[in-house]
Write the structure tokens for this entry.
Amino acid sequence: MLDATRRGLFKACVAGAVASPFALAAAQATLVGACTRAPLWRWGQGIEGQRTADLGDGTFLNPIVPGDHPDPTILKDGEDYYMTFSSFNSYPGIVLWHSTDLVNWAPVGAALQKNIGTVWALDLCKHNNRYYIYIPAAAEGKPWSIYVIWADDIRGPWSDPIDLHIEGCIDPGHAVGEDGKRYLFVNGIRKIRLTDDGLATEGELEHAYSPWRYPDHWIVENFAPEGPKLMRRGEWFYLVTAVGGTAGPVTGHMVIAARARSIHGPWEHCPHNPLVRTLSEAEPWWSRGHATLVEGPKGDWWMVYHAYENGFRTLGRQTLLEPIEWTDDGWFRARGGDLSLPMAKPGQGKAGPAGMALSDDFSRNRLGIHWSFHQPRAQEMSRVKYLEKALVLSGTGHSPADSSPLTCTAVDRAYRVELSLSLSGDAEAGLLLFYNHKAYVGIGFNGSFIKTHQYAEEHPWARVPLKNRNLRIRLTNDRHVITYEYSRDNGRSWQLHPTRMEVSGLHHNVFGGFLSLKPAIYCVGSGQVQLRDFRYQALVSPGQFQARSST
């Protein structure tokens, strides 16, 4: 049963009885603290025990897409919804996800096959029955530019990327003006006119809007107006923008809005700004921002944005869903309240698949949906060959620090991954938790001994002699505490590796890059490794909300 304090706070939060945002935040922080001591709700459990947002009783608990899925861009296409995210240095990239209820999401496929550099916040849109993705990317040694790909079917095939030569810009937002012409808004907040086919620009980049400024005493990272997303409703164009910086202090990132009767302005600030902002480290979600508005299946309205999970920056920025309401004066407010509590799902949506299996028997090619190379070179895909229920990965480089590992995205606070490895030739291979080439941990073997990677380097003093060409390796991440095991008999018995590690600091605020800590497989040297039977299993840890409990 709930104690009186939590029961009262819960009723106040849900009913919206606390009028002041700051008083509401204080009440929510107290409730979050109480929930930490005795969890009130837990996530649903899906395939492999992965946490799911849908609680099965008409409610959901954020995140709707767990794990590293930042900068969400969402498209309503009839009764279907599609969403994609920043894919950074991973290729194939720009994985599209599908939903019919805004809560349950499953991947469709990767839209970007050609490496154009690191990919940040995109914009997915549809115009005249054709789909477009506007992509900010920075190839090595080149400035940022915005590219576009298009498709007549959202499931592909997608075109090769076309460079629009909008240099030095990120975070595109597509809009069609009252004149029927197409425009692209970018960070700044600036805009440039597109040709009617959306595949080139006309005219020059120009100032569009001077965003609302927060008080100087607020604790933020920097002003950084970015992520402009536009929509038209009635006689108004609405411009939703992120300010305050993406990471840094947890109270920095936020969502603001403006509106105008013309795509060319003048824009007026929303009187409710900021619409979303983390106010305290006690809240369950930090650095909330970069939002897009979307109409639900029933005609109600929602806001999709990203945030870091309290205490789990290593998982990257995850995707959240929050209801909004339109007010009589034509503005809107966020109505999610305490995001550690369940909310009613969007009405009239049809629940579909949620997430995907991360385990892989390598019987089919899942590159681009499940696996991707980190920061691949031009011929990286030539390293991969599929056999019957096996993937052969050729070695390159001398260590994980100069090789491109295969990575996948973890979605839980605690999980276990394991994999069978068979070496051939002069190869070394292993299992990592990989942030970037300067931040990773893991173990590998070369047929003579097991190597220990810590602080992005191998520690020779920790080598374990092992004469074998076949090995099964297990890595357990229990809320940032890493344990390794290895088996010579394909998992029938396990040997504990003598070193444990703690990885809570392997995230953006330490190493930059806005990435996440991912399970990864590496192979270096001139030989090959044969991969079999990769398994992922979510674990229930103390304090981890994994399935709902009664009140």
Remarks:
- The CA atoms of residues 73 and 213 lie 24 Å apart.
- The domain at 44-344 is CATH 2.115.10.20 (Tachylectin-2; Chain A).
- Residues 1-39, 542-551 have pLDDT under 50 and may be disordered.
- The radius of gyration is 24 Å.
